[in-house]
Amino acid sequence: MKKILTLLFSTAICMLLVLSSNTYVMTNSGTPPPGKTGYSGPAETCRGCHSGAAPNPSGGSLEVVLGASQNSYALGETYDMSVTVNDPAKIRFGFQMEARDANNNSLAGFAATGANVGISVDGGVEYVNHSSVPGTNNGEFTFQWTAPANDVGTITFYASGLAGNGNFATSGDNVYTTEFSVSPAITSVEEVIANPKNIHIYPNPVQDQLNLFYVLPNSQQLNIAVYDMAGKMVQQLWNGQQNAGHQEANFRLAEGQYHTGVYMLVIEGETFTTSKQLLVK
Prior knowledge:
Order of helices and strands: HEEEEEEEEEEEHEEEEEEE
Strand content: 35-45%
CATH superfamily of the largest domain: Reeler domain
Distance between the termini: 82 Å
Helix content: 10-25%
């Protein structure tokens, strides 16, 4: 009799553990826990709860689209957005995403307009994520996002996507991550000249190599050079034709040509000239 009671007790405990595990998985299929977008590092993604192949395995993907595949935003404008998790070997999908400005401040503005999409806030950070996904779904989630009313520089969306096998457990699932950046839209040449935020130098101060981000209003001949504070050109970084739009370039400072101090990086086009202070350490 004792053996039978012991067996029944053990069986009951096992059933409770299984139910508890499945409840946890179902809870996450309702709304994922906060901080799983990958912004805080590779460990802070859906991989924190789900096991399977290494993140971003071949054969699958995670795609974020703003409007009609845009890479810029207009101040205060509302855009349709989509997140799509692709993995032909899986049947149940979820995601979480957040937005950060150029200073890594969290941005709000998401609106849950599509099916199985929710908005959550934790610790002052707003997330858009899956919500109450069915047993099987196609991995596409749609919603809206409203850009800030003020220019906050380049905005980066951090997203983590889950491709599940639908076994109501945390094993055998694939995790995908991505980052998607958009910059303020330029509406005129005058805005390029008047708004130095459209030129980004990093790191700044710089030691030997700088990364330069800028926007061209149209295709034109461009000259990029560094000048000292006396107006003497220290180094020409670029001279040639470039297409319109967002540009990102990497330049190495000429060895022996610079001393610690302040310089001016000047971008001169056919229709404008603009500059940015460069600190060399």
